[in-house]
Design brief:
This protein is 26% helix and 30% strand. By secondary structure, the protein is α+β, with helices and mostly antiparallel strands. The protein is globular and about 55 Å long. Bound molecules: fe (ii) ion. The site of fe (ii) ion has 3 residues, from loops.
Length: 287
């Protein structure tokens, strides 16, 4: 599939948030400049986050650029299932090193593992703000988030490179399946669907792009403030473009666990195993 580069010249009006709080312990609150901005972010499932000052992003970017080299030892990291390892897919432009939290120690340098832990703290802060806004009683946040809100669940830290030798492939429209995605992209190409139209999400220097996924939509669906899962795509990267490197962090529930839907009174409104929910999403995507 060729994604049209001529389409969607519009740019999205995307709210901006920052984290405030204790930089030393990375215990943060997510802050928007107005309630309107927060509401819009929750509806869109998308916002920019001012990059925290102490996030070691430059080192992580350098690591991401280096690991793609033809002689890089990281190319030897085996594939674990479909999601993890050094992966060059046949059906899109991405070549990536993808690893879940329990493998960071084994395969990432110490500094990158620590970078992953910093992203964990950011992901948890965002998750806790969503749960705070949802009205779901705090005692239920752990089961509601498949353990993620208290440091469990599953997290992936992936380093992505777009291979411009395959100019027909970008990344087709999809929603992310998990809770929260944190993206650092080095070049344009990301678009999101707003009111039926794809609009560009420009790279905003000094900011990360945060988007909400299906699992977060699911667990907040019956609460006081539900969130949307944003449909997005990545345009095909041409060889004339700057090389697009990305760092992507996915906050997910425990993949073998359950997701529960609570209302603000703490009453259970529904549930699904994570596997069933993801299988349903996969079916809808491929149909
Ligand atoms: Fe995505």
């Amino acid at each position: 599939m060729t994604l049209g580069r001529e389409a969607a010249p519009l740019q999205a009006d995307i709210p901006i948030a920052s984290l405030s709080g204790d930089e030393a312990s990375f215990a943060h609150r997510l802050i928007f400049s107005s309630t309107n901005d927060l509401d819009r972010a929750w509806d869109l499932g998308l916002f920019y986050l001012k990059t925290p000052d102490n996030l070691t992003l430059d080192g992580a970017r350098a690591f991401g650029r280096e690991l793609i080299a033809p002689d890089s030892s990281y190319r030897q990291i085996p594939q674990y299932g479909e999601l993890e390892g050094f992966i060059a897919l046949e059906n899109n432009q991405q070549t990536k090193l993808a690893l879940s939290r329990e493998r960071w120690d084994q395969h990432y340098p110490q500094a990158i593992k620590e970078f992953g832990c910093q992203l964990d703290a950011i992901g948890i802060a965002i998750m806790r703000e969503v749960l705070h806004q949802s009205g779901i009683p705090e005692v239920l946040w752990d089961p509601a988030s498949g353990g993620y809100a208290s440091g469990g669940g599953t997290a992936f830290l992936n380093f992505v490179h777009y291979d411009t030798r395959h100019p027909d492939w970008g990344l087709r429209p999809h929603t992310d399946y998990g809770f929260v995605t944190i993206l650092d992209a080095s070049a344009p190409g990301l678009q999101v669907e707003i009111e039926g139209q794809f609009v560009g999400v420009p790279v905003l220097p000094g900011h990360l792009v945060i988007n909400f996924g299906e699992a977060l939509h699911f667990i907040t669906a019956h609460s006081d403030h539900s969130v949307g899962a944003v449909v997005h795509r990545v345009l095909s990267q041409q060889s004339s473009d700057p090389v697009r490197q990305g760092i992507v962090y996915f906050a997910n529930p425990d993949l073998d666990g359950m997701l529960w839907q609570f209302d603000a009174a703490g009453e259970e409104k529904g549930s699904s195993s994570v596997q069933d929910l993801f299988a349903l999403l996969e079916k809808n995507l491929t149909e």
